[in-house]
Amino acid sequence: xxxxxxxxxxxxxxxxxxxxxxxxxxxxxxxxxxxxxxxxxxxxxxxxxxxxxxxxxxxxxxxxxxxxxxxxxxxxxxxxxxxxxxxxxxxxxxxxxxxxxxxxxxxxxxxxxxxxxxxxxxxxxxxxxxxxxxxxxxxxxxxxxxxxxxxxxxxxxxxxxxxxxxxxxxxxxxxxxxxxxxxxxxxxxxxxxxxxxxxxxxxxxxxxxxxxxxxxxxxxxxxxxxxxxxxxxxxxxxxxxxxxxxxxxxxxxxxxxxxxxxxxxxxxxxxxxxxxxxxxxxxxxxx
Length: 287
Description:
The protein is mainly β. It has a single domain, classed as Beta Barrel (Porin). The chain has helices at residues 19-36, 173-176, 217-224; strands at residues 40-49, 53-54, 57-58, 65-74, 78-86, 97-109, 115-125, 147-156, 159-166, 187-197, 200-210, 233-244, 249-258, 278-286. The chain has a 12-stranded antiparallel β-barrel. It has a two-stranded antiparallel sheet with strand order 2-3. The chain is globular, with a radius of gyration of 19 Å.
């Protein structure tokens, strides 16, 4: 997740590093910055990672990713932001770039023992997705794989819980296969834990994707072409370690695993599972 003292490092869409992990590294700097800065501010971030994982599954065919974003945040908790990353063209039907736009409100529920909340919406956009599909693609139409979700997050101390709900066909899974029933309403539950120890920040994460209308005939036929049969749920797991080297520079290491490695593939052909267990390394610089 992504930046220094902005919405992305604090747990929004940077999907490589993990928001709470970086928030723990940079929390003190954020508080100091608010004490000195005006009511609103704009911050940015750039990062490089050995692999871009989204909910446990690679988005770059196990290759490196260059990522970055900008965030605007107000003292009252309102925020808006944008985050971007390269993605595998064969996975996103011709797109090579992901552009996320998000906004919401963060605050604290004092009556709930200092629990903080984060409510908002996010749009995942993939320019040229569907307009330049890979040759010999198994996709049945030129669908653009854009997606929208709303989310609610809660955190208290080292624990965090976040729920995302798709407000459109989930990454166009149904429409790309001409399935009659939308996957709108698909949920993703994210449970996280972070703890500082001897100058490092350790994290653990479990995610559960609940796919809506997964039993459709078109999904079964697609699985016969090489993908793993869809099930109502698939889990992903992550263990993280991070180190803040000062001047808004953070190095992280993440180990990913999934309950069904072949649930998604690295490309449109369904030839290689995207959920293999593995270690990723990353470096983020905030400005």
